[in-house]
From TrEMBL:
Its EC number is 2.3.1.180. GO terms for cellular component: cytoplasm. Belongs to the thiolase-like superfamily. FabH family. The gene is fabH_1. This is Beta-ketoacyl-[acyl-carrier-protein] synthase III. The keyword Electron transport does not apply. One of its GO terms (molecular function) is 3-oxoacyl-[acyl-carrier-protein] synthase activity. Residues 133-211 form the Beta-ketoacyl-[acyl-carrier-protein] synthase III N-terminal domain. HAMAP family: FabH. It is an enzyme of class 2 (transferase).
Amino acid sequence: MATIAEKDYAKPTPGNDKTLFTRRTSSLLGVQIAACGSYLPDQVVTNEQLDERYGCDPNWIVQRTGIRERRHCPDGMATSDMCIEASRQAIRSSGIDPQQIDLLVCGTFTPDYHCPSTACLVQDQLGLDCPAFDAAAACAGFMYALVTAAQFVATGNARYALAVGGDLNSRIVNPKDQRTFPLFGDGAGAVLITRGTPHQGLICYQLGSDGSGGPLLDRPAGGTKAPMTPEGLVAGEHFLRMDGRSVFKWAVRMLVDTIELVLSKSGMTVHDISQFVLHQANIRIINAAAEQLGIPQEKLFVNLDRYGNTSGGSIPIALDEAVRSGHIQSGDAVLMCGFGGGLTWGTGVFRW
C-alpha cells in the first residue's frame, strides 16, 4: 500500500479565491469489490407528473439536466430501508455468511434520525455483528464510505466490509422549488469489500473538501447552529437550497481537475479506463467534463435519465447496474467520482 503526498497546490475553488486545490493523492491496493447491490423505490415520477403537480416544465428539465424520471419513496419508507435492501442484494450476490461482515459504513446526508446513525439501523436489521457508522459527505458520501471501509480491509482490521450509499432526497427538497426539486430522486446502493490481489483496489484516489463553498448547497435550519422553529418551518428553512449556477461551474471544473490529477498520478490516460462512473447529477456537467477530458460517450455509464440525482446512492447504483450489464469486468480499471455539498469530492481509479 503506497501513499503519494505532495504540496503542489493550484486551482482555487468557488467558495473562496484563497482556497487552494490540493494535489495530494493516495493509493490503496490489495482490496476488491466482491459484490454489488442496489435498491430503487417502485414509484416512478415522470417530468410530466411534476408538471401536473407543481408546474415544473418537462422540456426545461430534460434540456437542462437530461433527467426524464426519478423514483420517490412511499410514505413510511426511510433511507435505512433502502440501504437495507441494497445491502441484502450485495450480500446475496456475494454468497458469504453475513456474520463474516465486520464493518458497515453508510454514506448519507438524509439520515432517518440525527441519532441513532442510519448505519446502526441497517446493522440491526441485517443482524450483523460489527461496528457501524455514517459518513456525511452529501453526494460524495459513498466515495468517503468506500475509501474508509477499504482502509479497514487493507490494514487487516476488517475481513468483509459493507460500504453503502443512499439518500431519500424527495423529503428534503421543497416541491415548490421548480429548479431544484426535479433534479433529485431516491435510491441506495452497496458494495461488499474484501481482500484482493496486490494489483486490485484503488490505484490512485483523492478525497477533498472546501467548506468555504458550503453555502452553495445547504440546509440552513434544523441543526445546532439554527434549531428549527415554527417560523423556520413555515419559511421552508429545513429544505435543501442550491445555487445551481455556481455549483454547476464548480462541478465541471472540479471534475476535470481531479480526474486529470488521479489519471496522471496513476500513470494512466482516458484510454486505459474501461468505464467512467461519475456522480449522476446533471448530464450537462458530465458531458462538459467528458468533452474537456476527451472521454468517449461509450465509456460513460449514465442512468440519471431514469433516476435523477440520488446523491450518496448515485455511484453504487450505477456500479451495480454496470456490473450486471457487463460494462465492468474483472481486471477493468474503473474511474469513480462523487462530488457535492460540503463542498466535497472523492475520485478514484479502481482496478476491478
